[in-house]
Amino acid sequence: MGEGWISLHRKIRRSPEWYAEPLTKAQAWIDLLLMANHTQKMFYIRGNAVHVQRGQIARSERSISENWGWSRNKTRRFLKSLKAKQQIDHRKSKLINIITIINYDKYQQNETTDDTTERPQKDLNN
User: Which residues make Cβ contacts (< 8 Å) with residue 18, sequence separation at least 6?
Assistant: First the structure.
């Protein structure tokens, strides 16, 4: 298996193929990474200010379940397993669920982990 990482644009979630079928657990994990805010945001729910930090997701379990094509129980179990593995922190309130991706910055570095962008690509036709 290859090493390193790739960039994946968030707009892939707008593709009809992304949610065409129920997601696998691996796809659900990637979807959480794509849903996470890359900057701090604030919005209102029923007149209450909700502050969401970088690496956090503010969504209801219902909306996540619907997107993934899963039951709410399956979504809850999956989020609970990610929390047990210390991949996320999950806080619920009457207004919204806040999911925090632990080590989000590790997944979203702004630089490559090797020097591929600094050295020219070899011409594969030669």
Answer: 12, 31
Q: Residue 36 and residue 89: Cα distance in Å, rounded?
A: 13
pTM, rounded to two decimals: 0.80
Count CB neighbours of 108 within 10 A: 15
Residue 72, C-beta contacts closer than 8 angstroms, at least 6 positions apart: 61, 62, 65
Q: Find the DSSP H helices in the chain.
A: 25-35, 61-68, 72-84, 104-107
Q: pLDDT, tens digit, for every residue of 59-84?
A: 999 999 999 999 999 999 999 999 99
Residue 42 and residue 51 in contact, taking contact as beta carbons nearer than 8 Å: yes
Q: How far apart are CA 97 and CA 59, in angstroms?
A: 6
Identify the CA nearest to 33 among candidates 67, 50, 56.
56
Distance CA 105, CA 3 (A): 18
